[in-house]
Amino acid sequence: MDVLELAKRRGFFWQSSAIHGPISGFYDYGHVGTMLKRKWEAAWRRFFLGLGETFYEISPAVLMPEQVFRASGHLEHFVDPIVKCRKCGHAMRADHILESILKESFEGLPPKEMDALIRKHKITCELCHGQLEEVALVNMTFPVTAGTGKDARTAYLTPETAQGAYVNFKQMFEVLRKRLPMGLAVVGKAFRNEIAPRNALVRMREFTQAELQIFFDPETITAHPRFADVETARLRLLPAAHRHAVQETTAQDAVASLGLPPFYVYYLARIQEFFLQTLGLPPEKFRLKELAGEEKAFYNRFHWDIELQLGIGWKEVGGLHYRTDYDLSRHQQVSGQSMEVGEGRKFIPHILEISMGVDRNIYALLDLCAREEQDRAVLAFPRRLSPFDAAIFPLVRKDGLPEKAREVQAALEQAGFSTFYDSTGSIGRMYRRMDEIGGPACVTIDYDTLKHQDVTLRDRDSMQQVRVPIARLPDALRRFLDGGDLGTLGKPLH
Ligand SMILES: [Zn+2]
Question: What is the pLDDT of residues 402-452, one digit of tens each?
C-alpha cells in the first residue's frame, strides 16, 4: 500500500504549503492526522508521566538564545558531512551516498576519510555524474534574529526539545521540592536543517518530539525501586556485538550479560511495554538496537535505539540515552550558574533521556496498520489510538434519520467520545471510507432505531454487527474500545 497516497487522500498529512510549491521536509496534518497524533501523544503522556512520582510535563519556548546551543554543543558538533557537485551544485549527505553505493554504514567517519573513499571508488554526483567537491561539515541548526537594531540577538530554533528541559532544571528542582529522580517531559516542535529530507515524516526539517528527561543521582543507577516489576520481561534486543538477529533476553539477564545498569534496563523494559502493550504493535516488528563506538553521540554512555520494521526497512523511532552529567555540566560552565544539588555531598545530576519522534511514530502506525483486503483497504489502528472512536451514519438522508443520528452523536460526544458524522453516500461506501481512516466502530441509525431506540454497532476488523439499545451505547462503546469482543456487547445481526 502507498502510505503517502493514502495519507493524503484520507486527510492524515501532506507536504506543507503545496499550493505555492512546497519546501521539502515540511508537512501539514489534516483533521484525521491531527486526531491520530493527539491520541498518540495522549497515550505517551499517560504512560511515561505515570512512571515516576515527580515526573511532569513542561512547555518551554522553541526559540532560544545562542548561549543555550554553545552549552549544548550544537553549534560545534551538530553537523552533517555534505558533499556538493562541482557541475550542477546538488548537495548530498556524503555518508548516505557512500552507504548507498558501498552498502555499509559510514556515520561519524571523518570528512578526510570520506574524501578518500569517494576518490577510491570514483563516486560522482547522483544527478549528473559530475565531479564532487571535498566533504564539508555543515551545521544543521536554524539561526533566527530576535529583535532589531542594537537589541538584535542571534537565536536558534531548538533542534531538540531536551534543551528546554535542561535550562529549566534548576527552577523546576526548587519548585518540585528538591526530589530526585525528577522527570521533565516536553512534547513539542524541533527544527533541523536536514540536507536531504526523505521518507515523508521519517526525516523532516520541522517535527514534533516527545521527550522525557530523567534527572537522577548517579549513585542510584545500580538499582530501580520497581525493577522487580520488569525483571522477567523478555526484551527484544539487538546488542552491538550481535547485529544479525534479535535476542530475546529477560531484563534480569540484560543486566547480567550486557553490563547495563538496572536503572537503565528498567526504562528499556517500559519502552517496550509502551510499544507492544499500550500501542499494541506486533512484537516481531519491534526491536531495541544498541549503538556503539562512533555511532552514538560522544556524551552518551549507553544508547539504544527503538526501531520498527516498516515497508521502507527498520527505522529508528526513538531512543534511550544515558547522557551522564554532560548537559548540566555544560550549562553550568557556559551560564556560570551552579547546577549542583544535594546537602553535604554535592553533585550534578545525571540524565537519562527517553526520546521519541512523534511524526515518525505516526508514519509507522499508518505503515504497520494498513491492510489490503479483498474489497477494501483498512487502517487497523489499535482501537484506543484510532483518530475517531466511532462514526455515526444515518441509513438514508430523510424521514428523520439524520436528526436521530445527530442526537446519538451528541450523546456520545457528551460522554467523552470523539466521533465523526457522515451521511454522504450509501451505507457500504460510508463503511469503506471509515475503514480507510481507521475508525474502529461505526454506529448506524435506521428505521428500526425510530421504533425500538436501538442502533447497529459495527466492528471495523471483523465487520460483525450487533444491535445495541441507545441507552447502553456509551457503555458498550467504552467496553469495545477497551478490547471487548463485539459479540458480547449486543444482539448479533446476520
Ligand atoms: Zn551534479
Answer: 999 999 999 999 999 999 999 998 999 999 999 999 999 999 999 999 999
**Structural domain boundaries of the chain?**
3-75+141-369, 79-139, 388-492
Measured in angstroms, how far is the CA atom of residue 358 from the centroid of ligand 1? Answer: 34
91 C-alpha vs ligand 1 centroid, how far in Å? Answer: 8
Edge-first strand listing for the sheet containing 390-394: 419-421, 390-394, 441-445, 454-459, 465-469, 491-492
The fold for domain 388-492 equals Rossmann fold (3.40.50)
What is the per-residue pLDDT across 68-118, written as a single tens digit (0 to 9) for each? 999 999 999 899 999 999 999 999 999 989 999 999 888 888 999 999 999
Crossing angle between the packed helical segments 31-49 and 358-369, to the nearest 10 degrees? 110
Q: Tell how far the Cα of 114 is from the centroid of ligand 1, in angstroms.
A: 18
The Cα 436–Cα 429 span in angstroms is 11
**Cα 141 to ligand 1 centre (Å):** 25
- Taking phi over 0 as left and psi of -120 to 50 as alpha, with beta for the rest, 483 belongs to left
φ, ψ dihedrals at 368, nearest 5°: -75, -25
pTM over 0.70: yes
For 79-139, CATH gives 3.30.40.230
User: Which of these CATH numbers, 3.30.750.24, 3.30.930.10, 3.40.1010.20, 3.40.640.10, describes 3-75+141-369?
Assistant: 3.30.930.10
Cα angle vertex 404, ends 402, 407, to 5°? 110
